[in-house]
Amino acid sequence: RGLSGERALSSSVPRSRSIPSFASSSSSSARVSPQDMLLLLLATSGLLLPGIGEKVVTHATSAADVRSWVEEHCSAPGVVGFDTETRPSHRKGRPNPPAVIQLSTMHACLVAQVYVAPRHRLGRRGAWVESAREAREGADGVRHALTATLEDRSILKAGVGVDNDAIDLWQFWGLEVNGRVELAGVAERSRSLARLLATTTGVELSKPKALQASDWAAPLGERQVAYAAADAWAGRAIYERLSSLDASSFGLDAVAALLDAGERSCCELYAMRRARQAARAALADVAAQLGEEGLPHRLGSGEESHASAKRVITALSGHARTVARSLADSKDTRLPVDSVLDAAPEIDEVSTLGREDRSGVVQRK
């Protein structure tokens, strides 16, 4: 079936490992059943997703596509899964701007291309070609159409690494992302999106490296759309499971109150990122100076050695104070992901996907 039409799979999904294929579509609002979307990504994982309810993936390439999806699916207050995709950069210190923003409810996903590069390669090793002006202008419109939704604090955006995504969107496009819900847990026990989804719902999400590293700033292919939509849907499904385990911590009102009291702006997040980068650079510089002076392994008793050590330590202390001032903020919006998951029961072979989708089960082949 073409991407422009909706297709519902029966609850008895064929037990084939083959990847579903879709015909190309000229429609700017591409729609595909999420069963096909997830089967596409989970074809090698040994999991089937029968009867999870009709869900629609919209590939937005114009502002009208975005407005239509938001009006239909993104009511406030509410929660959506959130993620971004970026064209890989092969130049150190030269990151590329985010090219795709994904939002998802439990029943519908939006894959919005917010940047199309002036040139893109045809295939992995093909020739470079100019991107269509219509595609680039459409991406600009998509980006502007998403501004109000991203800024809306009453629409929570749940995912893994959402602060880093928000920094990049602010740095490159001036977009302020509010209502950020980080699901990965504390740094010491941080979990990837795929691992967290498996832990909370039993769904094992495949993350093909070829798709991860594909060109997201070129016109998107069908497999890219499916991959991107699944990432955002995973964030929404994880939040749904956590809120069912601990509504007092993960309920909509509780999370909104926590963020209202202490959510940092994207500007603050960017300053913190720069402070961490400065700290890493300072430590590398200190290590280099110690190596040049033969310290601490050849620290002698002479005045010259002591003076060298003192200069290095003074420099390090100055950097430490700078970083401390940058990070001296009592705001803490971390959610108790780790403690909730530690107390949660083990996922069985058959697991419900969430309160809004009680008919949905995950079955192993």
Write a structural description.
By secondary structure, the protein is of the alpha/beta class. Helices cover 45% and strands 13% of the residues. It has helices at 34-42, 63-73, 133-151, 162-173, 193-201, 209-212, 222-245, 247-250, 252-262, 266-293, 303-327, 337-343, and strands at residues 47-48, 56-60, 78-86, 98-104, 108-113, 119-121, 128-130, 155-159, 180-182, 351-352, 361-364. The strands form three sheets. A six-stranded mixed sheet has the order 2-5-4-3-8-9. Helix 1 crosses helix 7 and helix 5 (193-201) crosses helix 7 (222-245). The radius of gyration is 23 Å and the shape is globular. The model is unreliable at 1-30, 37-54 and 349-365 (pLDDT under 50).
Silhouette: globular
**Beta-strand content estimate:** 5-15%
Placed side by side, the strands forming the largest sheet appear as 2-5-4-3-8-9
- H/E series: HEEHEEEEEHEHEHHHHHHHHEE
Backbone structural class: alpha/beta
Relative helix content = 40-55%
**End-to-end span in angstroms?**
25 Å
Number of strands: 11
Q: Radius of gyration, Cα only, in angstroms?
A: 23 Å
Poorly predicted sequence stretches spanning 5 or more consecutive residues? 1-30, 37-54, 349-365
Biggest beta sheet summary: 6 strands, mixed
Helix count from the secondary structure assignment? 12
Structure described in brief:
The chain is of the alpha/beta class and 365 residues long. Helix content is 45%, strand content 13%.
